[in-house]
Amino acid sequence: MNNVSHQSVQPPRAEPAPARLRRFASMMYEGVLLFGVVFLAGYAFDTLTQSRHGLTLRHTRQALLFVAIGVYFILCWRRSGQTLPMKAWNIRLVSATGGPLTMKQMLIRYVCMWVLPAAGAFVVWMLAEMVAWPSVLMLIVAAPFAVFIPTIFTADQQFWHDKMAGTLLVSTPA
Q1: Which pTM value belongs to this model?
Q2: Fewer CB within 10 Å, N side or C side of the chain?
Q3: Cα–chain center distance at 129
Q4: How much helix, strand and coil, in percent to the nearest 5, is found in the chain?
């Protein structure tokens, strides 16, 4: 008898999708934790580049923050399929096939989860340009919630970026 692992591909999970309110609460908690990730990455960037202003090397800073946030999410998802807020709200990220999450799935999910918020931000910017009221730009705070729009129109209530990546958010036991 050999010691080969017998982790075969399992059928998709039968756990229900977490309620939108739980996902929203997890997202708010995630924002609090991401403040720390962004602060540390920004501090390291400013220290290494001797930047004295937030707009110095702005595009490089944005690229670094995109990578730092991605590293945070991928490390958490790779380890347990959960970030700390996902654990607190009993939500787990799993592969739609039932197998382990792959690096490709995690990368696709991370990149795709920016698409709808970016589109929402663009709509807010266009609206501000059309009405010529700069105060309309305050609505940018609603842009991240554009990720919830597709969940209204699908039976399984999964996010668009999960469909693109072949992943699912499932409820876990408390």
Answers
A1: 0.84
A2: N
A3: 28
A4: 65, 5, 30
Question: How many alpha carbons lie under 13 Å from residue 128 in its C-beta half-sphere?
Answer: 13
Q: Are 17 and 171 in contact (CB under 8 A)?
A: yes
Alpha-carbon span 126 to 109, nearest angstrom: 27
| CA atoms of 56 and 113, how far apart (whole Å) | 27
The predicted model gives 97-115 an average pLDDT of 95
Q: Which helix (H) or strand (E) holds 116?
A: helix 115-131
d(CA 94, CA 105): 10
How far is residue 159's CA from residue 167's CA, in Å, rounded to a whole number? 9
Q: Round to whole Å and give the CA distance between 160 and 153.
A: 10
Query: 2: pLDDT confidence band, cut at 50, 70 and 90?
Result: very low
Query: What percent of the chain shows pLDDT beyond 90?
Result: 76
